[in-house]
Specification:
The complex is a heterodimer of chains A (259) and B (187). In chain A, 42% of the residues lie in helices and 14% in strands. Chain A is of the alpha/beta class and 259 residues long. Chain A has one domain: Rossmann fold (3-Layer(aba) Sandwich). In chain A, helix 4 links the parallel strand 4 and strand 5. Chain A is globular. In chain A, 47% of the residues are buried. In chain B, helix 1 crosses helix 2, helix 1 crosses helix 5 and helix 3 crosses helix 6. Chain B contains 6 helices and 2 strands. The two termini of chain B are 27 Å apart. Chain B has a two-stranded antiparallel sheet with strand order 1-2. Chain B is mostly helical and 187 residues long. Chain B has a single domain, classed as Non-ribosomal Peptide Synthetase Peptidyl Carrier Protein, Chain A. In chain B, strand 1 and strand 2 form a beta hairpin. The chains are: A alpha/beta (259), B mainly alpha (187). The interface between A and B is medium-sized, with 22 and 21 residues.
Chain lengths: 259, 187
């Protein structure tokens, strides 16, 4: 549903060609925002998905732009934000959704894998914040980081969790640091979503089969909380991470019991 | 004794199907020698999805980690990929010994990011075939030696119906690396 607050505002969503990022893009476009989509690697299925999503958003009557950029490289992020402001003339919302990880236990990661993990999921996200601050300050903009339950619970072969935890801390930090510029910063911590990452989880975590269907989260359910955090209704929420998991994390044992 | 009652032709057909479903493309446009990345546009997350589909189809466990990771697990960091992210001589020796003509194009100094683009439908099918070839002679439950392949893909016991149990892809690579290591010791 189109909402006055989003009309003609511009959202940049990193890692938005598929999964939760794509759902956030659709939700914000439906609310009336113009959307900048981002993917990392040219010539692959992400670019294809991104192009299709771009068309879909344009068919809603919104502007959309697909930009290739690797957030782990500062120059690439600079170009990404530059392309957004050049094309749309403004930036109101930054949604930090991009993530990249090997799927193996933390203690087995090679040095280069560790560095890539930090480069993309920690440093890369901070690059995005740094490069966007100037534009976001002009629009009293909002930043939302997309976290996951891995930030606080163990998942097998999911080293990304520790980066998510670090970023939840960055969110708290920046919420205060950017207060003077009237930029709000919050996060959404998604439960188990049946997107691409689920395809990985189900290979590494066999018990996942026993989790009842009602505890799974739809990408749209996360996207709608992101929308809330980008809207004036969340004006008193600052530096917080909202868990969106249908209560999955409230239950210590029940989901693991074999039916 | 190891055996396999699923044909390579059938495996290639199923790999094409899995790739097409993952990438939302038409299986009839996919060739066995298409590169998964260069020709078909697959990405790392797509590989995991393709693996999952193949696991469901054949009742197997595909390798969660590529052979290069196993080499480094066994011989330490830097054994397969050097500090510049390039394949070492040792990695190439292992890869050639493992895949031979099925998987051409490896060379020392090659950027590790280029390796996945060498994967084709046929090499993916080869990985499935390797696992299917670990089918035991007899059913572990009833001892019968009468396997049958449901739909030509999912093997079960012809007597008691128990699903076939295969060696996992990761265990297969580990066993193979250990064997090569032993052979090299005795040389």
């Amino acid at each position: 549903m189109e909402k006055a607050h989003f009309k003609d505002k511009v959202a940049l969503i990193t890692g938005s060609s598929r999964g939760i990022g794509a759902s956030i893009a659709r939700t914000l476009a439906a609310a009336g925002a113009d959307v900048a989509l981002n993917y990392r690697r040219s010539g692959g299925s992400s670019e294809d998905h991104g192009n299709k999503l771009c068309e879909e958003i344009r068919s809603l009557g919104r502007k959309a732009l697909l930009i290739q950029a690797d957030i782990s490289e500062k120059e690439s992020v600079r170009k990404l934000v530059g392309s957004v402001t050049e094309y749309f003339g403004r930036l109101d919302f930054l949604v930090l959704n991009a993530a990249r990880t090997p799927f193996k236990p933390l203690e087995k990661l090679m040095e280069r894998e560790l560095r890539q993990l930090v480069d993309t999921n920690y440093i890369g996200n901070i690059f995005c914040i740094q490069e966007s601050v100037q534009e976001l300050a002009k629009s009293e903009g909002r930043i939302v980081f997309v976290s996951s339950l891995g930030s606080r619970f163990y998942n097998p072969s999911y080293p990304l969790g520790s980066m998510k935890a670090a970023m939840e801390s960055v969110v708290r930090d920046c919420a205060e640091g950017l207060r003077g510029k009237n930029i709000s910063v919050n996060a959404v911590c998604g439960g188990i979503v049946k997107t691409d990452s689920f395809k990985v989880l189900r290979q590494l975590w066999e018990e996942i089969e026993y989790i009842p269907e009602y505890l799974f989260v739809e990408p749209r359910e996360i996207a709608e909380v992101v929308e809330f955090l980008l809207s004036p209704a969340s004006r008193a929420v600052r530096g917080q991470t909202i868990v969106v998991d249908h209560g999955f994390s409230n239950r210590l044992y029940q989901p693991m019991v074999k039916k | 004794m190891a055996q396999n009652i699923v044909t390579e032709e059938k495996v290639i057909e199923e790999v094409k199907k899995a790739v097409a479903e993952t990438l939302s493309s038409d299986p009839s446009g996919i060739e066995a020698d298409n590169s998964m990345i260069k020709d078909l546009g697959a990405e790392s997350l797509d590989f995991l999805d393709i693996n999952y589909r193949l696991e469901q189809t054949f009742g197997i466990k595909m390798a969660r980690h590529f052979i290069l990771e196993h080499i480094e697990d066994m011989f330490g960091e830097g054994a397969a990929i050097d500090e510049n992210g390039q394949l070492t001589e040792k990695a190439v020796l292992f890869l050639k010994a493992r895949y031979g003509d099925k998987f051409p194009g490896f060379s020392a100094g090659m950027d590790m990011d280029e390796v996945p683009s060498l994967f084709t439908i046929r090499t993916m099918a080869g990985g499935v075939m390797d696992i299917l070839e670990t089918l035991p002679e007899k059913c572990g439950k009833c001892g019968s030696a009468s396997w049958k392949a449901d739909g030509g893909v999912k093997v079960g016991c012809g007597s008691c119906g128990e699903a076939a149990v295969y060696t996992t892809g990761d265990d297969l690579i580990k066993q193979w690396l250990s064997k090569i290591q032993e052979e090299n010791k005795s040389c």
